[in-house]
Specification:
The complex is a heterodimer of chains A (567) and B (368). Chain A contains 18 helices and two strands. Chain A has a two-stranded antiparallel ribbon with strand order 1-2. In chain A, helix 6 runs antiparallel to helix 8, helix 10 runs parallel beside helix 12 and helix 10 packs antiparallel against helix 13. Chain A is mostly helical and 567 residues long. Chain A has one domain: Cytochrome C Oxidase, Chain A, CATH 1.20.210. Chain B has three domains: 82 residues, no CATH class; 116 residues, Immunoglobulin-like, CATH 2.60.40; 115 residues, Cytochrome Bc1 Complex, Chain D, domain 2, CATH 1.10.760. In chain B, the strands form two sheets. Chain B has a five-stranded mixed β-sheet, with no helix packed on it. In chain B, strands 4-10-9-6-7 form a five-stranded mixed β-sheet. In chain B, a hairpin with a 2-residue loop joins strand 1 and strand 2. Chain B starts with a helix and ends in a 20-residue tail after the last helix. Classes of the chains: A mainly alpha (567), B alpha+beta (368).
Chain lengths: 567, 368
């Protein structure tokens, strides 16, 4: 209790001057062999953003090809490789690792009040695995590329003549283990490394989300590994598992694949939901509404995610009874998602809202996730899905969820924790402008695709009927606008790194533990054992104009914790 | 809502195409009305919840927006059990209702009536073959109106999916399995391709995936019967000497996806100069190093070029022209001897055809 009275802000600020995790040791090797979760998180973030650039370039190329029916810039074979690479890179190299491995690695131990994750060496190993997986994926390009679609559906994937199929399968196999190890690490960290006072229901919601995600990563990803192994076995050794001409069954592959890849969707979205819970609470300076409901709904989504995979296969030849059961269960995911959405909205009510860049991203998320989530109803409903399945409606739906929600959430989180990670502020106006450009571009790109799809345009089409052209042109223009937004955002971050003003320890007014340590944090995160209070009680913070910082009044906090016993 | 439902259902039953709307394309099958109704109901539910969430968000942000440094207000609720219950239970009830009606519609969509007319469908990389009970074949799907039609579908190679947006039906075609879908269209289109309904392949199947689109042409029963009889005999009705230019181009339309006749690179070797290559020593070489002259000739595997062509159409993987891959499907059962004869004849007279396979000479009326 004595620690509470220490004037810690001063201690922290002076500590930031002399020693932080960036300056603790120097040199290339000190990064590449580091066991510090913060450095690993930063390296992950750099790698993920680089992959995002590559995946985004493929997206722009394929959107450009679709400007006109028939050939615009490339052949059908090349186009098929573009969309396959775009999908595979964005899913396996960008979105899946982006939040847990990059942001989560940096934030989770600090937020929890721990010095590091439970297994720092495993953590570094998982990053090397990621690099290995990425290397194989890159190598597959040199080996002739692959045109299977990111889903690797058989028997096309076992018979196509493109040479990069096996390298990319090996790459994704390795990436899967990177994901499993991160998940394993987080589960153990959350269970075993919580400091005294950090009970389950005192944990910030981002940690609940990461914990739920980690469960999915550990349980679902091995199935992908097995599936990819079987695919390689079939392709190399000609053992019939999925190919009917050798006695296999292609629908079996789809079951295996979606048994992983549906939960994978929640590996992407659940941590983004956690970020949004943090951003909305912190930037509204308002106790999060319905803490327990949001926490439980993360777990509920993680559980439901395992029993709805069949809704990807309503037209595949799966029996009518199976379709009916999967349709019914799929609707159950709507409930925890709705609970979260309403709770976030209610958190804004009677808040003290700062319209900062992270908040802009969080509000964009709320808008886009509402559309992405609601259009899921069209696809979970059996008879409408028959019409919409494998059309652009599905493409639009999952981009609203995977990009508009998961990726926007990640970028929002990056803005939120950027001052903590780098120790520098960015140009807020520029960041907000970038967010608006991305938001507008995104909606132009993907809302048109809902119409394309419901009008009957199938996906993965190189060529299309002339009546669809107007939608494609609008969509492509939107993608260019979006690219301009991301470009602006990149400039903003680079500018911040080069010449951004020094970040205070608590620029937004958060109460969770990461805002109680310096920016950037010291090597061991906390000089003194952190004080765990109610991480959503914003009555204890006040703005200090002189230092441009929010000060946490620990005396007031203590009074709340012991006196009123809130929550 | 019930009266709305009956109104829309009644509209769907009348023999008129439901016009395209902002969201949906034209509807031309008995089932389309039901699907559209469901789609629109879900849409309105979505509009409601979207406006609710985004509306509250905008209002709250506008109202509680505050500059940094303003005192942080602490009077907001932290939880409210009744609210939590209401926004879990109400959406749950709505979801169950939507599930139920979607399920009802789906059962109708997958249960073909007993008296349906069956058409056999073969999907392959990259085209469709529609076969009728009397042996007739067609590249476009021609069906009778005013009666249920069931497509019995097989794939020769990889996954395909048959999708007819105007009928709101779709079904994957899985190699090694037989799948089916049914529809009933009461609005005849005639035989003009431009009036037909679109039929797409909806499951990614490689290079020619986006060109696997055909038309669905709907004829009244009497016209359909006449078309069917004529279609079954179309190759037999053509005189032998006219076969290569009358039947050739029609059959070539399918070959043209991979084989050009003007030398353009395709997925398979071009036909340009093929007869010259076949009949002179040297020529193209096969993957196993053999040339044409090693295979064709008296006492060799093929007695003459015609036999080689016939074999290449029926068992395309046996000898592969380098450097092309083994991608051509067999046409056994799809192309009979007269069809092969037409194609062989076309190869011998390639100078009479333009790049798209249309015959450029005037019909030799005098000779007849």
């Amino acid at each position: 209790m004595t620690t509470i009275d220490t004037p810690r802000q001063d201690v922290l600020d002076s500590a930031a001057e002399t020693d932080n995790y960036l300056t603790y040791t120097r040199g290339f090797l000190s990064w590449i062999l580091t066991l510090d979760h913060k450095r690993i998180g930063v390296m992950y973030m750099g790698s993920v953003l680089l992959s995002f650039l590559v995946g985004g370039t493929f997206a722009l190329l394929l959107r450009t090809e679709l400007l006109t029916p028939g050939r615009t810039i490339c052949s059908a074979e090349t186009y098929n490789q573009f969309f396959t690479l775009h999908g595979a890179i964005m899913v396996f190299l960008v979105i899946i690792p982006s939040i847990p491995a990059a942001l989560g690695n940096f934030v989770l131990p600090i937020m929890l009040g721990a010095k590091d994750v439970a297994f720092p060496r495993l953590n570094l190993f998982s990053y090397f695995l990621w690099l290995g997986g990425a290397a194989f994926t890159l190598y597959s390009l040199a080996a002739g590329g692959f045109d299977t679609g990111w889903t690797f559906y058989t028997p096309y994937s076992t018979t196509t003549t493109t040479g990069g199929v096996i390298p990319v399968l090996i790459g994704v196999f390795i990436l899967g283990f990177s994901s499993i190890f991160t998940g394993l690490n987080f589960i153990v960290t959350v269970h075993k490394l919580r400091p005294p006072g950090m009970t389950w229901f005192k944990m910030p919601l981002f940690l609940w989300a990461l914990y739920a995600t980690a469960i999915i990563q550990v349980l679902a990803t091995p199935v992908l590994a097995i599936t990819l192994c079987l695919l390689i076995v079939e392709r190399v050794l000609n053992i019939g598992i999925f190919n009917p001409s050798m006695g296999g069954d292609p629908v079996l592959y789809q079951h295996f694949f979606w048994f992983y890849s549906h939960p994978a969707v929640y590996i992407m979205i659940v941590p983004a939901m956690g970020i949004i819970s943090e951003i909305i609470a912190v930037h509204s300076h308002r106790q999060i509404f319905g803490y327990r409901y949001i926490a439980y709904s993360s777990i509920a989504i993680a559980m439901f995610s395992f029993i709805v995979w069949g809704h990807h296969m309503f037209t595949s030849g799966q029996s009518g009874l199976m379709n009916t059961i999967f349709s019914l269960i799929s609707f159950s995911v709507a409930i925890p998602s709705a609970v979260k959405t309403f709770n976030w909205t209610m958190t804004l009510y009677k808040g003290t809202i700062s319209l900062t860049a992270p908040m802009m991203y969080a509000l964009s998320f709320l808008f886009l996730f509402t559309i992405g989530g609601l259009t899921g109803i069209h696809l979970a409903t059996l008879n409408t899905d028959v019409h919409l399945h494998d059309t652009y409606f599905v493409v639009a739906h999952f981009h609203y969820v995977m990009m508009g929600s998961a990726l926007i959430g990640m970028i929002g989180g990056l803005h939120h924790w950027w001052p903590k990670m780098t120790g520098r502020m960015y140009n807020e106006k520029m960041a907000c402008t970038a967010c608006i450009i991305i938001f507008v571009g995104f909606n132009i790109t993907f809302f048109t695709q809902f119409m394309l799809g419901s009008q009957g345009m199938p996906r993965r089409y190189y060529d299309y009927l002339p009546e669809f052209q107007v939608y494609h042109v609008i969509s492509t223009i939107g993608s260019y606008i979006m690219a301009a937004g991301f470009f602006t955002s990149a400039i903003c971050f680079i500018q911040s790194l080069m010449s951004g003003p020094k970040a205070p320890s608590n620029p937004w007014g958060g109460v969770s533990l990461e805002w109680q340590c310096a920016s950037p944090p010291p090597h061991d995160n906390f000089k003194t054992p952190p004080h765990v209070g109610n991480c959503y009680d914003f009555s204890v913070v006040h703005w200090d104009e002189a230092t441009k910082n929010y000060i946490i009044d620990h005396k007031a906090e203590l009074a709340h914790v012991t006196g009123e016993g809130r929550r | 809502m019930l009266s709305l439902a009956t109104a829309i259902l009644a509209q769907a039953a009348s023999p008129e195409v439901t016009p395209a709307t902002f969201w949906l394309p034209i509807g031309a099958s008995e089932q389309a009305g039901n699907v559209d109704l469901m789609f629109n109901i879900i849409n309105y539910i979505c509009y409601f919840f979207f406006v609710l969430v985004v509306g509250m968000m905008v209002v709250f942000v506008a109202k509680y927006n505050a500059k940094r440094g303003k005192r942080i207000r602490t009077d907001g609720m932290t939880h409210h059990t009744l609210l939590e219950l209401s926004w879990s239970v109400i959406p749950l009830l709505i979801c169950i209702a939507i599930f139920f009606f979607g399920f009802r519609g789906y059962v109708d969509l997958i249960t073909p009536p007993k008296n349906s007319y069956d058409v056999n469908v073969t999907a392959f990389k990259w085209g469709w073959q529609f076969k009728y009970p009397n042996g007739a074949q067609s590249d476009d799907l021609v069906v009778p109106s005013d009666r249920p039609v069931r497509l019995v579908m097989r794939s020769n190679d990889v996954l395909h999916a048959c999708y007819i947006p105007a009928f709101r039906v779709k079904k994957d075609i899985v190699p090694g399995r037989v799948s089916s879908l049914w529809f009933q269209c009461n609005i005849p289109t005639g035989l003009e391709a431009k009036d037909g309904y679109n039929l797409f392949c909806a499951e990614y199947c490689g290079t020619g995936h986006s060109n696997m689109n055909r038309k669905v042409l709907v004829l009244p029963q009497a016209e359909f019967d006449a078309w069917l009889t004529k279609q079954a005999a179309w190759l037999d009705e053509i005189l032998d000497e006219e076969l290569y230019f009358k039947a050739g181009p029609k059959i070539y339309a399918r070959c043209s996806q991979c084989h050009s006749i003007d030398g353009t690179e395709g997925l398979g070797p071009t036909w340009k100069g093929i007869w010259g290559r076949l009949t002179t020593p040297g020529g193209a070489r096969f993957s196993d190093g053999k040339g044409y002259s090693d295979l064709i000739g008296p006492g060799k595997e093929f007695a003459n070029p015609e036999e080689y062509i016939r074999d290449s159409i029926y068992t395309p993987g046996k000898h592969l022209v380098a450097p092309y891959g083994n991608v051509m499907p067999t046409f056994k059962g799809q192309l009979n001897d007269r069809g092969v004869e037409a194609i062989t004849g076309m190869m011998q007279h390639l100078d009479e055809f333009d790049a798209k396979g249309a015959w450029t000479k005037t019909p030799p009326a005098v000779q007849k």
